[in-house]
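Internal tracking record. Fields below are filled automatically when a chain is submitted to the structure queue. Please do not edit lines marked as system-generated. If the sequence contains nonstandard residues, flag them in the REMARKS field before resubmitting.
Queue: standard
Priority: normal
Entity type: single polypeptide chain
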Amino acid sequence: MCVKRSFGFLVSVLVLAALAVGALVLGASAQLPGMGRGDLPAIDAKVQAAVIDSITAALKEGYIFADKAARMDSLLRANLAAGAYRTLTDPAEFMDRLQADVAKIYLDKHMQMAAMPPGRIRIRTSEDPGPCGADEQREMLRRDNYGFRKTELLAGNVGYVKFNNFVDTDLAGPTAAAAMAFVANTDALIIDLRENGGGNASMIKLLAGYFFERSVHLIDWYHRRENVTIQSWSDDWVPGKRMPDVPVYILVSGFTGSAAEEFTYDLQNEKRATVVGETTAGAAHTIEFLTFDVGPFSAGLRLPSGRAISPVTNTNWEVVGVRPDIAVPADKALAAAHLDALKKLEENTEDAVAKAALAWARTAVESEIEAYTPTVKELKEYVGIFGPRTFFMEGSKLIYERQGRPRGTLVPMGKDLFALQEVGYFRVRFTRNASGAIDGVVGMYDNGQEERNPKGK
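SYSTEM-GENERATED OUTPUT FOLLOWS
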């Protein structure tokens, strides 16, 4: 039986019949498919002891925190000896209690224990496609465009790339390179990971490589079972143009997890990205999925066995998540990042034409963030003739018409400031006299040019 689920990486669940086995994945989105209460035969103290023997042996051998594993072992065995589990004859209830007990030692959000039908269940990653077939999985990824959703040039020459999965570069490398080529000439770049649950580390290395002049030590991965630490560096070669001096913004949310968090954490620590949005999920461990046949059921264990260690912070984002530099609700993150980029670009340029264009773009984004909605009564204040420019109402809309040109609809951007809906390079700003009455209008263009007309003339 093949089941496809999207957790930032693909997971296939295969029901087999044998002994325990584990598969390593980056992050911890996949869950063990546990059974409900009453779905499995009752168990006795002998089965309970066998389960605890298996669980504690796995904890002591592979759990990322050896000291906590020893304390968990002591607690479970002490509870068993004291008869604390004697009445828990339902396998699901028993496994839930074991998980609750080890959480008293350390509340590891990645740790999971579950009761499952007899036989072995193997959780496979996209790198281990199993019976669902590598060809089928590659075709699924291709149809998904390898997670890449959007590339765009925003106002002010700010690039935007959104992708929802870190797919192995053997498959997704050309698509990633094409996305980076599209934004290669931008003055700032926004990378949207708000819906990205993680995936393959090779994509982290490739994308990070674009933002440094040379290969950079990003993170270390310590694996407890093998007692080895593996360094991860950004790629020393990337297809296309590097962007080592381009300001980078990364948009994140509470869903952003796993490899997406590492990418964000790495670039934030290296001072190469400003993180905007909400604190991320906090998934910094690699996980083994283990099952143990104990007669009437299988005891499942989702075991955190590896951890990230930053060469900068000497820790990681586990549980705490990656905290944003600019904290805003996730749905406001794009506008907040775009505005910050435009402000900084405007501050740092001495070119008058470029500064005017950036100010134009900045005003538009500010109007999105602080939306202004005047009443119909307020809109009627602007009705009148201002030289060659005429303003009048059609229903609840303020209409603009200039002699010899098509009429257009004015969209409020702020008090007395309007954009012409049909033309992106033109706006109008009404002026007022000392008593507050409207006495003129200024036609404004995105190149900084202005044309002033008094009311009634």
